[in-house]
Design a protein that fits this description.
It is built from ten helices and twelve strands. It is an alpha+beta fold and about 450 residues long. α8 runs antiparallel to α10. InterPro entries: HATPase_C_sf, HATPase_dom, His_kinase_dom, HisK_dim/P_dom, HisK_dim/P_sf, Sig_transdc_His_kin-like_C.
Length: about 450
């Protein structure tokens, strides 16, 4: 209850209403004290009328009048002269005088608070203005006990009434909050839990219907998000099904093409000049088809495993990559070069880094050979403030516009005829696994340059 929104609202409302009542309590008690003293002055003035009507008054009657007025004596000031109208023996010395004629609100409040916190009995003088202009001033002397007791009784009644009002107000607000806020919020939570159980079911998408504007905006945002997520899940499911079908087709097609490749090897030994002339083209076509099937199967498997980071010497890995490429170049006019600081140590997965560089260098080599012109491939590296920079550049013909537009998209970013377009997609995935970035710096008639940035975090 306490940890719920409605429970906390109930407690806070009760506290704030009580605080407001306390702020009202002090002025109310001060006003009650003033009214009490003014009533005593008025009763004393009425008691003094009997003396003003006659010159003599019986002592017993005078005592009874003073007792009914609740004072010890009454002093009237008329025509600049003070006159003791009624009197009785004083039980002690007067300790405090209160003048109600020009008392400010602050003075009344402070006097009331002092009286509440002063339990000692005191003899006080009260000065006021007579009612109906019956003189210039009236003074009475009285005990403070009855005044303080009346103030305490009045204050307790005010506090009890404040508590009842606070509880009733808090309860009504509690019901209102539950109706207006808590119930709709619980409804939204229930919709979210229902949708989470089966996010692919569009019937579980929330339908905005809250009357409160802010809640309705939240429901509309949630409905939009759920709709987009449901569509994305359906698309993902369709792609997964399509991927499974493609993988099965590629697997079977690879087996068929591998068998065909064995037959082609025998055809190459034929003495027929036409067969011998067409056989290499057939071999190359089948080889490309097998390569496409293998790339598709490799890409369709589970995501690349997380890199196992260790300290590696970049120059050593680059030498291994370039050595393997030298064998693949054969008689083609492609030169390989590297400018790597011999002691440059990176924190990376050595196998994945080798695959990254091999893919980029292989793409550059194939582009240069495909152009029929000589060219050069160069790998450079340097250490920055927070990243290692590795650049792979070539002097090939550059990437076609279509390839640049779909550079890192699987099956769409192929730059050469017969390519699968998976190489750069795989490279990007491996680089991102290291927390780095892969960027095409430029690609034109003068060549192509890719930039790899790998973060230095955690080197030590």
């Amino acid at each position: 209850m306490v940890n719920s929104l409605s429970g906390r609202f109930l407690i806070l409302t009760t506290i704030f209403v009580m605080l407001a009542e306390v702020l009202i309590f002090v002025p109310s008690v001060a006003r009650f004290r003033e009214s009490f003293l003014l009533a005593r002055l008025e009763r004393a003035q009425i008691a003094s009328l009997s003396l003003l009507a006659t010159d003599m008054i019986d002592p017993a009657l005078e005592e009874e009048l003073l007792l009914n007025a609740g004072v010890y004596n009454v002093v009237l000031r008329r025509d600049e002269a003070r006159q003791l109208v009624l009197s009785s023996p004083m039980p002690g010395q007067i300790t405090t005088t209160y003048d109600l004629r020009d008392a400010s609100a602050l003075t009344l409040v402070l006097d009331a608070l002092r009286r509440l916190v002063t339990p000692e009995s005191e003899l006080i003088r009260v000065i006021g203005s007579p009612s109906r202009d019956a003189g210039l001033q009236i003074e009475v002397t009285m005990h403070s006990d009855e005044l303080r007791a009346a103030m305490i009784d009045y204050g307790l009644r005010i506090l009890v009434l404040s508590a009842v009002i606070s509880v009733l107000t808090a309860f009504l607000l509690f019901l209102a909050v539950r109706r207006v806020l808590v119930k709709p919020i619980k409804g939204v939570v229930a919709h979210m839990q229902s949708y989470a159980a089966a996010p692919e079911d569009s019937h579980r998408i929330i339908r905005p219907g809250a009357g409160v504007r802010e809640l309705r905006e939240a429901e509309e945002a949630l409905a939009k998000m759920q709709t987009e997520l449901t569509q994305a899940l359906r698309q993902k499911e369709r792609l997964a099904q399509l991927g499974g079908a493609v993988a099965r087709v590629s697997h079977d097609l690879r087996n068929i093409l591998t068998s065909a490749q064995l037959f082609v090897d025998r055809i190459e030994t034929s003495e027929d000049p036409v067969v011998r002339r067409l056989a290499p083209k057939l071999v190359n076509s089948i080889a490309r088809a097998v390569s496409l099937c293998e790339s598709t199967l490799a890409f369709g498997r589970a995501e690349e495993p997380s890199p196992v980071l260790s300290h590696v010497n970049l120059a050593q890995i680059v030498d291994e990559v370039l050595e393997a490429e030298h064998l693949a170049i054969g008689d083609a006019e492609v030169s390989l070069a590297a400018d790597i600081p011999p002691n440059l140590m990176l924190r990376a997965d050595p196998e994945q880094l080798h695959r990254i560089l091999s893919n980029l260098v292989r793409n550059a080599r194939q582009a240069i050979i495909g152009s029929g012109q000589p060219g050069e491939i160069n790998i450079t590296a340097s250490a920055g403030d927070s990243f290692w920079r590795i650049e792979v550049s070539d002097t090939g013909p550059g990437l076609p516009a279509k390839a640049r537009d779909n550079l890192f998209k699987p099956f769409q970013g192929g730059a050469r005829k017969g390519g699968s377009g998976l190489g750069l997609a795989i490279v990007l995935e491996l680089v991102r696994g290291h927390g780095g970035t892969l960027e095409l710096l430029h690609s034109d008639a003068d060549g192509t340059t890719f930039l790899i940035r790998l973060p230095m975090g955690g080197l030590n």
